[in-house]
């Protein structure tokens, strides 16, 4: 009996050693994390004369997608960067959007659109990135009037953010 117990202990120990030494990790290609907009370099925030501290940051999971957001404030508008697991084209083609325009910056396609319910106070530019898209939305602050065309400001935001976005 002691010999049998010794053999079983030896076999169990050998199996544990083999399994422990094999790595035992998950096989396959690792999934990239969704880009966190609040992790952007301070440079584009300064270039756009936004206040350096974000006013809000959030993660949310609407049906069928994943999102991360970060919002900064200027004197008269808010800029919200949305990182999503859907494409830039899908963001612009959402039924709630209108005035869709497509243009290219540094060889990358940008989709511009406005919220159908607030076309005078909001404009977005969206671009595809490694794991989905980034949408940069410019919205006038409550009680403020747009001092410049919002889609021009959104385009400037895309230009400022572009070098810092995942490809």
Keywords for this entry:
disordered N terminus; 4 helices; 7 strands; single chain; 26% helix; 7-stranded antiparallel beta sheet; alpha+beta; 167 residues
- CA-based shape: globular
> Taking Cα atoms only, what radius of gyration do you get, to the nearest Å?
24 Å
Helix tally?
4
Stretches where pLDDT falls below 50 for ≥5 residues? Answer: 2-31
Give the ordered list of helices and strands: HHEEEHEEEEH
Structural class: alpha+beta
Mean pLDDT: 81
Major sheet: arrangement of strands: 1-2-3-7-6-5-4
Question: What can you tell me about this protein's structure?
Answer:
It is built from four helices and seven strands; from the N terminus they run ααβββαββββα. The chain has helices spanning 2-21, 42-47, 88-92, 150-161; strands at 56-60, 67-73, 77-84, 97-105, 108-115, 122-129, 132-140. Strands 1-2-3-7-6-5-4 form a seven-stranded antiparallel beta sheet. 26% of the residues lie in helices and 32% in strands. Residues 2-31 have low confidence and may be disordered. It is α+β, with helices and mostly antiparallel strands and 167 residues long. The protein is globular and about 35 Å long. A hairpin with a 2-residue loop joins strand 6 (122-129) and strand 7.
Which helices and strands appear, and what pairs or packs with what?
Layout: H1 2-21, H2 42-47, E1 56-60, E2 67-73, E3 77-84, H3 88-92, E4 97-105, E5 108-115, E6 122-129, E7 132-140, H4 150-161
Antiparallel strand pairs: 1-2, 2-3, 3-7, 4-5, 5-6, 6-7
Summarize this structure briefly.
This protein has 167 residues and is of the alpha+beta class. The protein is 26% helix and 32% strand. It has helices at residues 2-21, 42-47, 88-92, 150-161, and strands at 56-60, 67-73, 77-84, 97-105, 108-115, 122-129, 132-140.
